[in-house]
Amino acid sequence: MTTRGSKHAAGIGLLALVALTFWSRLEASQPPLEYLDEQTAAYLTVVSEPLVFSYERRELAANARDYVTLAAAAVNRAGKVRYVLIGYVWSTIDPRVRQTPPPDPQSFHLQADDRRIDLKLIGHSPEAAGVGLHIHAPPGTSVDPNVYAADLATLRFLSAAHRLVLVSETEQTALPYALWSDRRPELRALVQSLEGSAPKVR
User: Fold this and answer.
1) Which of 5, 99, 136, 183 could hold 71 in an S-S bridge, CB 3.0 to 4.6 Å?
2) Burial of 18: CB neighbours in 10 Å, binned 0-12, 13-18, 19+
């Protein structure tokens, strides 16, 4: 093989290695976060990275999107565990140019493969989840969380679903939010941690 050919082959090999490393990092999951909430004395087990869904608003700008962040958590208060999805509705769109209001937090459901999972809203503050701090709030925003009831079986199903879409549905429209930041491996790691042993209060 010529020197030029050797360099070409080496370049292809390097690109393949970079691609393999990149995808390996995407597949690798991070363990859940565990800590004591000093404000509520609840022991929290929280997904290390949340799911983020997006809906493109191309009628406004090329990269204009509405987003919804969903972070799963288990809240242990004196041995009683409550599972929740903490959601944030946010956007990169200037409110002055919006043609429609942001979606109603009560309008969402998840389409996980062939199953519809309605999100039951239980509050609009961290306290509704039994915690004192905002969990995985989107950077650069000041939106309050919406807390939805969950259970471990539902979290397990979501983590294993092949197709996951968030839908904001009203009488007039149904807007599908595509999975923009896919953190199902982190959700699986959370579920496995919760199934393996109950959180211990420190």
Assistant:
1) 136
2) exposed
Q: How does strand 80-91 pair with strand 146-150?
A: antiparallel
E strand or H helix at 188, and its extent?
helix 184-196
Q: CB under 8 Å to 183, separation ≥6 — which residues?
A: 47, 48, 49, 50, 51, 52
Burial profile 133-158: b = 16 or more Cβ within 10 angstroms, e = fewer: ebbbbbeeeebbbbbbbbeeebbbbb
Q: Which residues of 29-54 are buried (b: 16+ CB within 10 A; e: fewer)?
A: beebbeeebeebebbbbbbbbbbbbb
Q: Single out the residue of 70, 48, 63 nearest to residue 168, CA to CA.
A: 70
How do the pLDDT tens digits run along the chain, 202 residues long?
455 444 444 444 444 443 333 334 444 579 999 999 999 999 999 999 999 999 998 766 667 899 999 999 999 998 899 999 999 999 988 777 777 788 899 999 999 999 999 999 999 998 888 898 889 999 888 899 999 999 999 999 999 999 999 999 988 889 999 999 999 999 999 999 999 854 444 4
- Residue 79's contacts (CB-CB under 8 Å, 6 or more residues apart) are 201
